[in-house]
Amino acid sequence: MEKYQNETLPMEERIEDLISRLSVKEKAAQLLHRAEGIERLGIHPYNWWNETLHGVARAGTATVFPQCIGLGATFNTELVRRVADICSTEGRSKYNQSRKYGDYDIYKGLTYWTPNVNIFRDPRWGRGHETYGEDPYLTSRMGLAFVDGLQGHGRHLKSAACAKHFAVHSGPEALRHEFNADVSEKDLRETYLPAFRALVKEGNVEAVMGAYNRTNGEPCCGSKTLLKDILRDEWGFGGHVVSDCWAIRDIHESHRVTKTPEESAALALKNGCDLNCGCTYEHLMKAYQKGMITEADIDAALRRLLRTRFKLGMFDKSTEYDDIPYSVTACGEHRKVAVEAARQSMVLLKNNGILPLKNPTGTIGVIGPNAASREALLGNYNGTPKKFVTVLDGIEAEAEKHGMNVLYSVGCHLWRNKMSSLAENFDFDSEAMAVADNSDIIVLCMGLDATIEGEQGDAGNEFGSGDKHDLQYPKIQRRIIEKVTAAGKPVIFVSMTGSAMDMRFADEHCDAVIQAWYPGGEGGTAVAELIFGEFSPSGKLPVTFYRKSEDLPDFEDYSMKNRTYRYIESEPMYPFGYGLSYTHFEYEGGGDVEYGEIMEIPVTIRNTGDYDGYEKAQLYAEPINCRFTHPKWELKSYEAVYLKSGEEKTVRLKLRKQDLMLIDDDGKEYEHKGGFRLHVSGGQPDGRTVRLTGAKPVVYNLKTD
User: Fold this and answer.
1) Are 392 and 376 in contact (CB under 8 A)?
2) Cβ atoms 407, 439 nearer than 8 A
3) Torsion (CA) 417, 418, 419, 420 in degrees, nearest 10
4) Per-residue confidence at 458, pLDDT binned at 50, 70, 90?
5) How many CB atoms lie within 10 A of CB 687?
6) End-to-end CA separation in angstroms for the chain
């Protein structure tokens, strides 16, 4: 037995032994995402590229959970941790089987390039639905929960998580290979880095992925500032760094910071990018021969990569996860969790009393391109559900319980002017109106899907590279919405999108508005159950819904001025943290809080309504007498609390001194001595939220001097 095979030896000794047995060429070949096998040492090939954004992706059947923006809307950290644990369980199951059959292809490994903890700073960004929303604190807590669930707490890593895309990355998609994100030190430290910092320093995330763009002139995958000065030296990151796919090629082809592939490879490697997703590290040997890099540079990267593989147990005879059977994949228990996550992700934005349907009888008409759409359930970076339940499927199942009749029309294409190429424009107008006229109540199911809202290369049409030009629904959908609402029937509007939309017309003309996101393989069950009152909605918006596109700053401007709830200058349509319920919660508390490293803010919450359900309690900290530019208030704690009708609980919201540190105009962290007002309720303390919910927060005073 060689040293690297001896499980009784310290890991570092095993790693050094293995490195010593490799030639420089063999070492360099291990730094590509498709790492070659080394037969003489019994080392199998390994493809580092795998995905599990909201379920094991691109590898066949798996439980498909709500897209991450929907998980963010749950405001339930423990639920998200459970989701991630299921992802890693199914991932181990698939890994065990692929190895059994000698399959070492892409999407078969244990290194998952998730979570995406970029800040959803602009609702036009196509990939925003991969994130947990616009708030650094919410993003960090959700990201930490996902990392914890993926990596586990066993003798070996259950799987390896990756925080991406580092850093200052949120569109435009069409320019990402050449774009320079110019960002101030304040915005960098206050908004764009906190989630990454949390995952590194608190979550021990195993990997970090660099972004395509440049940040302040440096290509992110070869940035000394980001990868060496901040990530490794300041934060003490000990894991490995992987490039975004073919991003190192962009350094010379698009950013033009270097002139040749070997120069780009050398720049990235020397600044701390260990693994190349792509092919540019095929030029490492040429860079080595030209003296641009040393064998020690290659060894440093390989050492970090091997450490991850050793932690996963790839060089051990067995791990505690080897007996996870294939039968767990998309099993009933896992899919029940997915439906529960969908339930808690649903955000009720408006309700004039129509919901939940009371003594439902007669005919319900379902109209819209997303009603029977499987694509609209999935989001992107998704697996294949064992079972699909569309919104139409869910409504038919619920309606059958009540003896209701269901009529259906697609109404229109998602974005084209006609469904059939042989037809004239607006070919389903008459059917949609027939459904409307013959129904007692109408569910309008509109929105987008990942074919037009997503990543460059995966999405596109007139919307352009996956980004949205504005906040409007596609023109053909707006036309149907206007025609159907004019029929004079009660209308429930269900929006299936991964981002904020212009909801002014729906808010004015519809009786209820539901934001359903991309709710997962059986998400239609949750939508229907919400409508028929099987549960009380509890989702809260993880993003601001602006009133109109004109309220947005320039898409390419990375300043946080007038962006997100923390700096918005206009009144939003629906605020961050907002969402209605079928029941009513009263808060009792307030007073002075003693300052300390960890503070507990007690608040009593009472369910005074008729429904059992979750409340998502939120704490916002408002600095007092602050001499620097700062957010008016920020989310700093939250808790998902389940209360039966008539039940009350005293919840102790945890608040850390570290989370109250402010960032001055020079990007320096400081302890604010002017004190804080702490607002606790089911939403923000802003006037719009108070008007929409009819509830004011309880207020605590925190003296810090």
Assistant:
1) no
2) yes
3) -140
4) confident
5) 10
6) 63
- Please say whether the beta carbons of 109 and 313 come within 8 A: no
Q: How far apart are CA 390 and CA 664, in angstroms?
A: 48
pLDDT at 86 over 50: yes
The residue that leads in pLDDT, 464 or 390, is 390
Alpha carbon 225 to its chain centroid, in Å, reads: 26
The mean pLDDT value of the chain amounts to 97
Our answer to whether residue 244 is catalytic in this structure is yes
Which residues, other chains included, contact 98 with Cβ-Cβ below 8 Å and sequence gap of 6+?
Answer: 104, 105, 108
Does pLDDT of 462 surpass 90?
Answer: no
Marked catalytic residue, from 218, 453, 511, 522: 453
| Cis-peptide, bond into residue 575, ω within 30° of zero | no
Q: Which residue has the higher pLDDT, 303 or 460?
A: 303
Q: How confident is the model at residue 648 (pLDDT cuts 50, 70, 90)?
A: very high
pLDDT tens sequence across 366-382: 999 999 999 999 999 99
Q: How far apart, in Å, are the Cα atoms of 593 and each of 460, 466, 474? A: 51, 46, 49
Res. 333 pLDDT band, cuts 50 70 90 = very high
Phi–psi pair at 130, nearest 5 degrees: -75, -15
Q: How far is Cα 121 from Cα 241, in angstroms, rounded to an integer? A: 24
* pLDDT tens, position by position, 664-691: 999 999 999 999 999 999 999 999 999 9
d(CA 505, CA 688): 18
Domains of the chain: 3-7+47-327 (3.20.20.300), 338-529 (3.40.50.1700), 585-702 (2.60.40.10)
pTM metric for this prediction: 0.98
Mean local confidence (pLDDT), 267-289: 98
| Alpha-carbon gap, residue 688 to 705, rounded angstroms | 32
Residue 682's closest CA among 540, 533, 529? 540
Active site residue 187: no
- The tokens for 699 are 């207020």
Per-residue 3-state assignment (H helix, E strand, C coil) for 97-118? HHHHCCCCCCCCCCEECCCECC
From the list 334, 428, 312, 412, the residue with the least C-alpha distance to 370 is 412
8 Å CB contact between 342 and 70: yes
Measured in degrees and rounded to the nearest 5, phi and psi for residue 495 equal -105, 120
pLDDT given for residue 460 in this prediction? 52
Provide DSSP, 317-354.
S--TTTT--GGGTT-HHHHHHHHHHHHHH-EEEEESS-
pLDDT of amino acid 317 = 96
Report whether pLDDT(325) > 80: yes
Residue 464 has a pLDDT of 54
What pLDDT does 459 receive?
64
- Count Cα atoms within 13 angstroms, Cβ side, for 121: 28
Q: Give residue 261's identity as a one-letter amino acid code.
A: P
**Residue showing tokens 């590509």:** 32
Cα(284)–Cα(266) distance, rounded to whole angstroms? 7
The one-letter amino acid code at 388 reads F
Alpha-carbon span 86 to 76, nearest angstrom: 16
| Secondary structure of residue 82 in the 3-state scheme | helix
Structure-token match 């919450």, residue found:
605
Eight-state DSSP code of residue 405: E
- List the one residue out of 505, 494, 670, 683 whose CA is nearest residue 581: 683
Smallest Cα–Cα separation from 533: which of 392, 402, 692, 345? 402
Q: Please, which residues have CB within 8 angstroms of residue 637's CB and are 6 or more apart in sequence?
A: 601, 618, 619, 653, 654, 655, 659
User: What is the tens place of the pLDDT at every residue in 605-635?
Assistant: 999 999 999 999 999 999 999 989 999 999 9
Exactly one of 244, 263, 375, 396 is catalytic; name it: 244
Residue 463 pLDDT exceeds 60: no
Kind plus residue range of the DSSP H or E element containing 488: none
Question: What span, in angstroms and rounded, lies between the C-alpha atoms of 258 and 251?
Answer: 6
